[in-house]
Design goal:
The chain is mainly beta and 202 residues long. The protein has 2 domains: 80 residues, Beta Barrel (Elongation Factor Tu (Ef-tu), domain 3), CATH 2.40.30; 95 residues, Elongation Factor Tu (Ef-tu), domain 3 (Beta Barrel), CATH 2.40.30.20. 11% of the residues lie in helices and 43% in strands. Strands 10-9-13-7-8-12-11 form a 7-stranded antiparallel beta sheet. Strands 1-2-5-4-3-6 form a 6-stranded antiparallel barrel. It is globular and about 45 Å long.
């Protein structure tokens, strides 16, 4: 479990295939400012919002294995580049964002990313299957970052959500490099998922 409050921006340094059939990869990640002193093999770290298991540690770096299935339903884990990092939540930690599982629900597409005063307006087109879980003033995780949805627009071209990014969020996450047309990992609010299940009587 995570909070969606990014602890550091790291960098995927190496991407190595681990199996011809599965299509999975082994990632070696420079943890940047993320403190790995209390991390052990088997611990979970969210990478761009996707929960991964640490399989190796070495001098400020860690490695994970990502299955072909995970690669098919996430963005940003198949190539070198910057990634948002967060260690798993401990029960005594502050819940600064919202409860995040680290299980990506779908990939959205950035429609707009533009300055509005000192902040940035981020508009994302979301997969149709996720639209019912999103509401104004509700929470959503974008590339591992806990954010508040300002507006939901159900359009003929699909559902879009609008989010205001404050300067701090832009400065300390990979969201600063977003541009129209880019894919982003989305995780809907955990409570919304359970509410929908209860509504259906399942």
């Amino acid at each position: 479990m995570f909070t969606g409050i990014v602890a550091a921006v790291g960098r995927i340094e190496r991407v190595e295939p681990i199996g011809a059939q599965d299509g999975g990869v082994r990632l070696t990640i420079d943890a940047g400012a993320l403190d790995l002193s209390d991390v052990v093999i088997g611990d979970s770290i969210a990478i761009q919002g996707a929960c991964m298991t640490v399989i190796a540690l070495d001098a400020g770096r860690f490695s994970v294995e990502v299955s072909g299935e995970s690669l098919s339903c996430t963005a940003g884990l198949d190539r070198a580049g910057e990634v948002n990092l967060e260690k798993a939540l401990r029960l005594a930690d502050r819940l600064g964002g919202h409860l995040v599982t680290g299980h990506v629900d779908g990939i959205g597409e950035v429609v707009r990313f533009e300055p509005v005063a000192e902040s940035r307006l981020l508009v994302i087109r979301v997969p149709a299957k996720l639209a019912k879980f999103l509401a104004a003033k509700g929470s959503v995780t974008v590339d591992g970052v806990s954010l508040t949805v300002n507006r939901v627009d159900d359009l003929a071209t699909g559902t879009e959500i609008a989010i205001n990014l404050i300067p701090h969020t832009i400065a300390v996450t990979t969201l600063r490099r977003l541009a129209a047309g880019m894919p982003v990992n989305l995780e809907v609010d955990l409570m919304a998922r359970y509410a929908e299940r209860l509504r259906l009587g399942g």
